[in-house]
Structures are given as structure tokens and as C-alpha cells.
Recover the amino acids of this structure.
């Protein structure tokens, strides 16, 4: 069951951006079905034990951050252009087209369970 605040956040995502958010959200929940989802810093935050993964929309796509920087299964090494100087991954719909679901699952697994 999704927190009411998270559902409101999701319902307010622009139709153009919603497919990318839905993909990321579904992969997170599929990979870590026990993750709790609640709003933190006004964005959906996935928690598993003491780990957190923040996932928010921005004007060009999905931003993800909050995991220990060495726990991304090599994602940022393979996609350095998607990482900001602060360690956030900014995933545009165009970039996401070239990234397999398994690679995103590996990122989620490393971020929330390593």
C-alpha cells in the first residue's frame, strides 16, 4: 500500500514524465518488495532497513540519490554523464531508453541492500 502523500505526488506528475517514473518505481518495488515508501523532502523515498533511495521528478526526468556512493553496482561508472557532482543520477527519458531494466534493478539492489 502506498502512502497517501506519495500517491498524491505520483498523481501530479506530468503525463509526459509519468512513464519514466512508473518504470523506476515498478523496478524498485519489484526488486525490493519490502521497501517502505513515504515522502521525505517532498519526494518519494524508498527505505529498506537503514538504506534510503530518494526518487524525484525534475523538468527533464527522474533524479535518484541517497545511497552510499560506492553502492551503485557500477552504474555511475558506466553512465558518468548521468551523475551530477553531488552524486545524483539524473535519468532522462532518452537516456533511460538505452538502459536495460536489469541494470536499473542492479542499481536499486546495490543502493538498498548492500
Amino acid at each position: 500500500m502506498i502512502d497517501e502523500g506519495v500517491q498524491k505526488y505520483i498523481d501530479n506528475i506530468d503525463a509526459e514524465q509519468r512513464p519514466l517514473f512508473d518504470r523506476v518505481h515498478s523496478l524498485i518495488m519489484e526488486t525490493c518488495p519490502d521497501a517502505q515508501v513515504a515522502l521525505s523532502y517532498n519526494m518519494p523515498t524508498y527505505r529498506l532497513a537503514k538504506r534510503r533511495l530518494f526518487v524525484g521528478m525534475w523538468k527533464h526526468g527522474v533524479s535518484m540519490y541517497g545511497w552510499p556512493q560506492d553502492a551503485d553496482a557500477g552504474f555511475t561508472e558506466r553512465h558518468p554523464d548521468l551523475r551530477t557532482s553531488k552524486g545524483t543520477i539524473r535519468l532522462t527519458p532518452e537516456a533511460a531508453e538505452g538502459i536495460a531494466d536489469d541494470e536499473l534493478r542492479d542499481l536499486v539492489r546495490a543502493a538498498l541492500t548492500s
Helices lie at 4-11, 18-31, 75-78, 93-97, 101-113. The chain has a mean pLDDT of 93.
